[in-house]
Amino acid sequence: MPSPQSLCNFALPIFYNGLHSLIHILEKAESFARSQMLDPDEVYVHARLVEDQLPLVFQVQNTVKTVVINLNRLTGTELSPDLNKGNKEVTFEEMLHLIRLATIEVKSVMDNQPNEERSRETIDLLAGGRPIKLTVSEAVRLHGIPNFIFHVTTAYSILRAKGVPLGKVDFISGFVGW
């Protein structure tokens, strides 16, 4: 099991870089829509891959929510009130602002490593509707990161399905800092 320090060194860059990947994807979609004389807020914000899946705006909000939950788990504190306002974003500008606020929070936690004891604490988590007990380390590694990747990937896929010229490099570039 990773030490708390290594857990932060592992998880926080994934969140930070993944948020940058999502910013890049959204900015590219916004630019593409405008080049096609389309309003990105009208065309993409409520777009879905399939009818029973939640829209782009939900994917963005849940990406940030997942980051906030996991930062709270790692630090044991509540983060910026600006990130806990609720799901009120309805435009690209608002979604991008929310993601940028989250990157600031992640960077702050990266700069001030959390208490090493936190990762061994046990928390209650709902997984598939069932309550389970996990350590903070397990919750971040086994639930938080996969959930984060799922929502970033789904946002990418929605925009790709709507015709935005995105490729693998657009998804990966933010994660590796290109």
Automatic annotation (TrEMBL):
Domain of life: Eukaryota
Gene3D superfamilies, alphabetized: dinb family like domain
InterPro entries per UniProt: DinB/YfiT-like, DUF1993
PANTHER family found in the cross-reference section: BLL2446 PROTEIN (PTHR36922), DUF1993 DOMAIN-CONTAINING PROTEIN (PTHR36922:SF1)
Protein name: DUF1993 domain-containing protein
Natural source organism: Triangularia verruculosa
Source lineage: Eukaryota, Fungi, Dikarya, Ascomycota, Pezizomycotina
